[in-house]
Amino acid sequence: MPVNYVDFETARDASGFRMVVVRGVPSPWTQAAVGILHVKNIPWQAVALDQGNDELAAWAGERKGPVAIYNDEEPRSGWDQILLLAERLAPEPRLIPEDAADRALLFGLSHEICSESGLGWARRLQGVHAGLNGGEGFPAGVAQYLAGKYGYRAEEAEANQRRVIDVLEMLSARLHAQKRDGSRFYIGSSLTALDIYSAAFTALLKPLPQEQCPMPDAMRVGFEAMDEDTRKACDPILVEHRDYIYEEYLELPLSL
Ligand SMILES: N[C@@H](CCC(=O)N[C@@H](CS)C(=O)NCC(=O)O)C(=O)O
């Protein structure tokens, strides 16, 4: 289903599910939220993030994406808030396990992927650090912009690097253990939101090919660039899992 873009004023004056999205690069937070809505078949209207639009920022509460706004409820920008809203509006198919321990596992592991100092944040700062220091990372202008906005501190670069590797190793160890138990999913034997987060965030290390995931060449170089230790931590099982989740449950090519 193609993404239904509307202009900001139309979205603001409408009701239902509206979401501000990052357009043109495969932002994993946005891609994961879009995937969740797709799996749950929730109709929604997309508004492209425009960082310079003050009225949009006032409506959404921030200049980032994604931000989900349902009817006249408060805007939701946290990955967990967006997931809980989607689960409330369309309880089936469930993406949060029913069992309390599995539910805690889902939120804990997803936190390690999506939240501040999780894989996505740490990987972004890794690309910023490299880009600002003549290494292979984001183009310098992009690195400068992201540094200011997402809390880059040079003295934390080493700890940040460790985070990326630790989370990658933890996730791949879990996928291997699940595989030994005959499952292709992170938790139990069916799809959860965690599978969607992992598939979307793998783009920050191994983006899907250009025909499935178009983005400017310089950004692709930035997404793919990594040092030897990070490369070693990128176990092929993460990409295998990503391909399975996209093929079976999500939409290709990416349409944002
Ligand atoms: N709100 C999200 C994180 C959102 C986020 O980091 N968005 C980035 C994705 S790259 C963004 O909007 N970037 C575009 C920009 O900052 O201009 C969460 O923590 O759950």
What would your notes on this structure say?
This protein has helices at 8-13, 28-40, 54-60, 79-89, 100-114, 119-132, 140-149, 157-180, 193-201, 217-224, 228-233, 236-249; strands at residues 17-21, 45-48, 67-70. The protein is mostly helical. Strand 1 (17-21), helix 2 and strand 2 form a beta-alpha-beta unit. The protein is globular. The mean pLDDT is 95. Bound molecules: glutathione. Glutathione is lined by residues 22, 27, 29, 51, 64-65, 77-79, 114, 149.
Summarize this structure as a short list of keywords or feature phrases.
256 residues, mainly alpha, Glutaredoxin, 2 domains, 3-stranded mixed beta sheet
Main sheet: strands, sense, barrel: 3 strands, mixed
Shape assignment: globular
Listed once per kind, the bound small molecules are: glutathione
- Within the largest sheet, what's the order of strands? 2-1-3
Low-pLDDT sequence parts: none
Fold blueprint:
Layout: H1 8-13, E1 17-21, H2 28-40, E2 45-48, H3 54-60, E3 67-70, H4 79-89, H5 100-114, H6 119-132, H7 140-149, H8 157-180, H9 193-201, H10 217-224, H11 228-233, H12 236-249
Parallel strand pairs: 1-2
Antiparallel strand pairs: 1-3
The chain binds glutathione (GSH).
Glutathione (GSH) binds next to loops.
